[in-house]
Design brief:
This protein is an all-alpha fold. The chain is built from eleven helices and no strands. The structure holds fe (ii) ion (2 copies).
Length: 201
């Protein structure tokens, strides 16, 4: 699928500039999936602003490029001694995103609002605004998608039953909007059924 079938025209230049920073840890693919989920959530949550949420999704993980690849999984898994790397990817991400946003100055986009969401998207868990909540639900909702399941299971060597337990006990209940939770739980329920039928993955 071509990039312009996924991204709105306003966000395509941001995506092109973000891509060189997203070639670690499947972040490019993760970003595409999260962007799709965000668009679906935005259709259901009219009080959120697509001109803030969608650029934030495109740029939220560019900072991982600056983190030592040897410790990426330690950081995501919050292994003792590596938690600070999660915060560091946010700080680097804000710097990189600021450069990209100022280069393009996309029409109608509040650059500071986008940066505020990137800054803290993983280290704060609550909804700091409805735009923050939709961005976080799209980011975390990715875990339940086929791409998320495949990617995360491979990182940690989890079995599928272990993975679904994590989704149902730790990830889905922490979604921040009712729409995000329904989306994640619906995807998970369908995936569990496929697993039961024996055709999943
Ligand atoms: Fe992140
Ligand atoms: Fe992410």
């Amino acid at each position: 699928m071509s990039d312009d079938a996924v991204f709105l025209p306003r966000d395509l230049p941001l995506w092109q500039d973000a891509k060189p920073y997203l070639d670690v840890r499947n972040n490019d693919e993760h970003t595409i999936v999260a962007y799709g989920l965000a668009r679906a959530l935005l259709d259901q949550i009219p009080e959120a602003d697509p001109a803030v949420v969608l650029p934030a999704v495109v740029l939220h993980d560019v900072g991982w490029k600056k983190i030592d690849p040897a410790h990426l999984l330690d950081a995501i898994d919050k292994k003792p001694g590596f938690e600070h790397l999660v915060r560091e990817h946010e700080i680097h991400g804000v710097q990189i995103a600021r450069e990209i946003l100022r280069r393009h100055r996309p029409e109608g986009v509040d650059i500071e609002a986008v940066l505020a969401i990137i800054d803290g998207h993983d280290t704060t868990r609550h909804a700091r605004s409805i735009n923050d909540a939709v961005m976080k639900d799209a980011d975390k909702g990715w875990r339940a998608t086929l791409h998320g399941v495949r990617t995360i299971s491979a990182w940690y060597g989890w079995s599928l039953p272990e993975f679904f337990d994590m989704l149902e006990t730790r990830s889905n209940p922490n979604m921040l909007t009712p729409q995000g939770r329904a989306l994640a739980e619906g995807i998970t329920a369908a995936a569990r059924a496929e697993l039961q039928i024996g055709r999943y993955l």
